[in-house]
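Hey, quick one: can you model this chain's 3D structure?
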Amino acid sequence: MQARRIELGGRVQGVGFRPFVYRLAQCHRVSGWVRNGLGTVEILAAAEPADLDRFADALLREAPPAARPVLLVAAPVEEAVGPGFAIRPSAASESGLECFPPDLAPCPDCLRELAGSADRRARYPFINCTQCGPRYSLIRRLPYDRANTAMAGFALCRSCAAEYGDPLNRRFHAEPVACPDCGPQCWFDNGTAESAAGEAAIGATIAALRRGEIVAVKGVGGYHLFCDAADEAAVGVLRRRKRRPDKPFAVLFPEDKRLLDACVAADGAALAELRGPARPILLLDRKPQAPLAPSIAPGFGTVGAMLADSPLHHLLAEGFGAPLVATSANRSGEPMLTDEQQAAMSLAGIADAFLHHDRPIERPVDDSVLRVVDGAPRVIRGGRGLCPIERTLPFRLSEPVLALGGHMKSTIALGFGDRVVISPHLGDLDDPRALAGFARMAADLQSLYGVSPRLLLVDAHPGYASALWARERARTRGLETVPVWHHHAHAGALAGELAPDGAPILVFTWDGVGLGPDGTLWGGEALLGRPGTWRRVARLRPFRLQGGDAAGREPWRSAASMCWERGIAPPARLLPDTGRAMIHAAWQRGLNCHVTSAAGRIFDAAASLLGLCRVASFEGQGPALLEALADTACEAESSAAPLPLREAADGVLEADWAAALPGLFDATVPKPSRAAWFHATMAATALAIAEAMRGRHGVATVGLAGGVFQNRRLTEHIMHGLRAVGFEALLGSAIACNDAGLSFGQIIEHGAHA
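Sure thing. Here's the predicted structure for all 754 residues.
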């Protein structure tokens, strides 16, 4: 007999790993014990050498589907081990956490029990086991035991306690385990005598939805607003009440594949993503005759499709039997609503009824959003099912750091040792409630992982709310802040995910705007180098943009400024009815203007010139509509000439956007064709810059980073073009290319300098 101490990190808590180890030990005649550490699983195993080797190999090779084990320690020990194998109580220690389990959608076994008639949990909205159910949203502290979760207030009944204590049961130490006799309950409330509880609440909710009403439903990470996705009147009422005139709504589909096929184009890979344990919102092409209300996504050719992420949503979707709008109940930019009383007050003028439940939500978490680009699903917004995102760094940090990201699409990243943990989507920090949620997340990450950084990484823009918060905290807590340039962080995030070492790479950092080292607002750059050594080698021609922060919300300002820069009059329909001369005069004098090279603002201008979006009701609306219009062109624009390139006075290669204006103005060409041509022109420009950098610097690898590359049409055109001429092309998947990836990139940049 030999004895071996084994310690596993990664995702090994909240996924049924200890019962898996127990059963595995029985199979391989292994004695000893297993227990939870603080974010790890510790094993003492004794057996004949061959059996012990097979056991150790199977720990990684046969792990439960939701687990992501990482071997930390495997060392022989001189210790007497008695017969039998046991699951010991968790061991709390002072060491840091390795991995944190996300919330998981109901597994096939639980769905079968949910749909059955004989099972005691049939139609119970909170059914779960070790392979599914809430995790991140209900954990209060570690180790991951029931007493440390939001389920601590629900005492197990005799039957559930027996399952919880049986190592051979799939609910063995499933911390959220419950049943109708001992677990959380839901209730329907519309302020009338129709209010109902238990299963009757599900029926009352479905009846309200069939009447065309809007129902606020408490889910895993917060409240959603539901209505009939085929009822144009109901969707229109929801838009008016929520004051969301244009931004697309997500659609929850039943499991019936025929309904999904009737509405969206989903191949096998897309279906696998939709049905996976994360259950994200996946942006899919909408079919022309889809039986969905036109105002689900006005002007867009895609639909944000999702399947049920919880048993409660599953019961609603299957009971309704048709697609449902399922949009976050919070107003844009605000944190998710999680409390019943708060939701009732905030949504009083929006929802006709409520479906509440009494399982507490420890931390709000929004839905994840993905899009298939260049053949793979890419994270647009990290949230439920995916977060916290945990990765191994390509270096070890000498001290823990907290990276606070940017201002829009905010996330926070905690770095310690060779690990980084990225928070879920926190929203835009203009709203005080969003900023309060940002502060709570900063404290939460440090508390959960037992890490107290003294170094705060911030965006170099001094006016970002995240940077202001960090400086105030540094002043009162004796911490240090370190600024990181916005686009260096974008490039660093890509390199950190896909190219942690090796030769210099060229990264296009195209986005809205971000402060550059020269004091102008960048956003159309090509950076060459590695993390910590980036230098700008190319850019889009800068122009003077009038309107300050308002320019991001008013695409007409970009269009007018570019026209004035070119010496032509912008179309009269673009400018406000009053004050036109004053606005032009302000631009001429440089009042409330900034100089920018941002690709996002150039896409704004193109959308505005084509009459798609004069004033945006949500961030990125103009470019998104421009892409959707281009996708309707009768013939795909397969080739276009790049914008003219010239050497600027500072030695940077510059692409002149002015050459695109005549094509955008050409009324003899249909608008969809002009939109497709513009995309092809911008893609050709990126390829021309890459070819120039290959000639000058021997560039072999090119990456795309920044929010502009959420545009599938543009991105795929560039990626295919790069590969066709022999470049290695990089595009992130786990780390969002938009500003949600900045916090990760800030840690990569800091680590390269440290």
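One thing worth noting: The chain has four domains: 2-87, 186-357, 388-484, 499-736.
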